[in-house]
Structure formats: structure tokens, C-alpha cells
Design a protein that fits this description.
By secondary structure, the chain is mainly alpha-helical. 63% of the residues lie in helices and 0% in strands. It is built from six helices and no strands. The longest helix is centred in the N-terminal third of the chain and has 23 residues. About 7% of the residues have low confidence.
């Protein structure tokens, strides 16, 4: 079960990091539907290339953390720090998914998506975060 959850986490993180790098370097595919929009169709947040690349880097580091937790790679950190990092990021992603913001999280009500909700939706992040926490909390 741990391998299946880790593979799903890795796939989601790799896809999300890839999209953020793509957007950071000027890509436009799916950018309009990935960002929250106001009722008039204007973006709710202003984006910058630096921000997209920074998010991509954070997601790539979290991907490395997942690989280290399941033993695919070795990081020069104690296992307890890796577990704490995994739990911290699970909590961060869950808090983001559960935020009661008008534009982000499960309550955003955004029905306009190019990618299916299972790949890019906050509900999916919430589900895999708790699956991930339960798999590493032994």
C-alpha cells in the first residue's frame, strides 16, 4: 500500500511541478483555468514567472522527500526529519485544500478545469495527503 500511495504522490507532484516550471518559463496552456478567476473572468491573483518557478522547485523538493521516505533515494538527513517533513507538507497541502477561501480549496466552487479534478483538484490533494500521512506514520 505504501508503494501505491507513494507512486500516486510522486505522479501528482511531478505533474504539478512540471506545469509550474512550464508556466514559469512562459507556457500558457491551461494557465487560464488553473488560476482562480473572479466572476468577471479576470484573474483573482497576479502571477509572476518567479513565483511559478519557486512553486515548481518546492514541489520538486517535496517529490524528493517522497522518494526518500520510501527508500528510493538516500538523503543525508535522519529518518525522523524526513517523516516530520512529510507530515508537515501533508498538513500544508491539506490546509490549502480545506481553506475556506473563495478562490482556493474545496469551497472555491471552480467548475472550469482543463485537467480532471483527480489530477489538479484540491480534493485529490486532501485525499492523497492523508493517505501519505497514514502510510508513513507507523
Amino acid at each position: 500500500m505504501t508503494n501505491a500511495v507513494s507512486a500516486i504522490c510522486a505522479a501528482i507532484l511531478l505533474l504539478a511541478a512540471g506545469f509550474h516550471f512550464y508556466w514559469g518559463f512562459g507556457g500558457r496552456v491551461a494557465a487560464g483555468v488553473a488560476l482562480p478567476q473572479r466572476e468577471d473572468g479576470s484573474p483573482a491573483i497576479e502571477t509572476a514567472a518567479f513565483g511559478a518557478i519557486a512553486v515548481g522547485l518546492v514541489l520538486a523538493v517535496v517529490l524528493l522527500l517522497v522518494f526518500a521516505l520510501v527508500g528510493m533515494i538516500h538523503l543525508p538527513l535522519p529518518q525522523s526529519w524526513l517523516r516530520a517533513g512529510g507530515i508537515l507538507w501533508a498538513v500544508i497541502f491539506t490546509a490549502r485544500a480545506l481553506s475556506w477561501s473563495r478562490y482556493v480549496g474545496c469551497s472555491s466552487g471552480s467548475g472550469r478545469r482543463v485537467l480532471p479534478d483527480m489530477i489538479h483538484g484540491s480534493t485529490a490533494r486532501y485525499a492523497w495527503c492523508w493517505g501519505w500521512v497514514s502510510s508513513i506514520w507507523r
